[in-house]
Design brief:
- Helix content is 33%, strand content 26%.
- It is α/β, with parallel strands linked by helices.
- It has two domains: 99 residues, Alpha-Beta Plaits; 129 residues, 3-Layer(aba) Sandwich (Oxidized Rhodanese, domain 1).
- The protein is globular and about 55 Å long.
C-alpha cells in the first residue's frame, strides 16, 4: 500500500485494526495475562488476545497512537518483534477487551513441530506463480462459512466446520505420493503455520503457505493482478473485508 493511500485511509477511517501471532514458548502465562489486560485498559485497546504455552494470537483495535504504544509495550513484555497485518475502519469493530488462555492458539488437536514449517513460507508476490502451476493443489484451510464468502480461484474447499477437521479431509482426499505440491492459505497465516508442518510430517514433498495470509496478499497485490475472488471473512464486527478480483 502506498504512503499516499495509507494517509487517505487514516483520514477517513479512525480505528486501526491489527492482527498478529507468534509460535513462541511462553511461561507464566497467567502473569502475562494480567499485564496485558492492564495494558489494554491503559491504552484503550479492544479485541481479543489468546495465550497458550505455544504462543499468542490476536486481533485488536484502537486509535493509531494508542495501538503504537500498546505494540511497543507488548514487544517489550514478551521480548519479540510483531509482524502486524493492519487495516482501518470508521467504527470500533470490538466492544470488549479480552485476554484468554487456551490449550492452543489455534485448535488443530494434533501435535506438530512448528520448525518443520521452516522454508515453506511463500511471500504474497510469489503466490500467484505458485498457485497457477497446474501441478499444485491449492487448499483453503478455513471453514465452510469463510470459504463461501471468497477464496482463491481454483482452491479446494474442504467443507469443514472447524480447523481440527482438516487433517481428516487431507488424509482422505490427498495423497503425498500423487500430490507433490500443496499450497495452503488462511486469513492471517496462523492456521497455515501449524498445518504446513503437519503436511510435511505426512510426507508431502513441497508445501507452500501464504506468508501473512489473505490479509497480507490483499494488502500487497494490485487489484489488476489479484487472483482472489469475493470477500475475506474477518473475526470482528466488520464480518468481512472486500477482496480484489479481476
Amino acid at each position: 500500500m502506498s504512503a499516499r493511500n495509507l494517509v487517505k485511509i487514516r483520514m477517513n477511517k479512525n480505528y486501526q485494526i491489527i492482527t498478529f501471532y507468534e509460535f513462541k514458548a511462553l511461561q507464566n502465562i497467567f502473569e502475562i495475562r494480567q499485564v496485558l489486560k492492564r495494558l489494554m485498559s491503559e491504552n484503550s485497546i479492544f479485541g481479543t488476545i489468546i495465550l497458550a504455552d505455544e504462543g499468542f494470537n490476536s486481533t485488536i483495535c484502537g486509535f493509531a497512537a494508542d495501538v503504537e504504544k500498546f505494540v511497543a509495550a507488548f514487544e517489550s513484555l514478551l521480548d519479540t518483534k510483531l509482524d502486524c497485518k493492519t487495516s482501518f475502519h470508521k467504527k470500533r469493530p470490538f466492544q470488549r477487551a479480552k485476554v484468554r488462555i487456551k490449550r492452543e492458539i489455534v485448535t488443530l488437536k494434533q501435535k506438530v513441530n512448528i520448525e518443520k514449517g521452516n522454508g515453506t513460507h511463500a511471500p504474497a508476490d510469489e503466490w500467484n506463480k505458485i498457485i497457477n502451476d497446474s501441478e499444485t493443489i491449492v487448499l483453503d484451510t478455513r471453514n465452510q462459512y469463510e470459504c463461501s464468502m471468497g477464496s482463491f480461484r481454483g482452491a479446494l474447499n474442504p467443507e469443514i466446520d472447524s480447523f481440527s477437521q482438516l487433517p481428516a479431509f487431507v488424509e482422505k482426499n490427498l495423497n503425498p505420493d500423487k500430490h507433490k505440491k500443496v499450497a495452503i492459505f488462511c486469513t492471517g497465516g496462523v492456521r497455515c503455520e501449524k498445518f504446513a508442518p503437519f503436511l510435511k510430517d505426512l510426507g508431502f514433498a513441497e508445501v507452500f503457505q501464504l506468508e501473512g495470509g489473505i490479509l497480507r496478499y490483499l494488502e500487497k497485490i494490485p487489484e489488476s493482478e489479484s487472483l482472489w475472488e469475493g470477500e475475506c471473512f474477518v473475526f470482528d464486527e466488520r464480518v468481512s473485508v472486500l477482496g480484489k478480483s479481476k
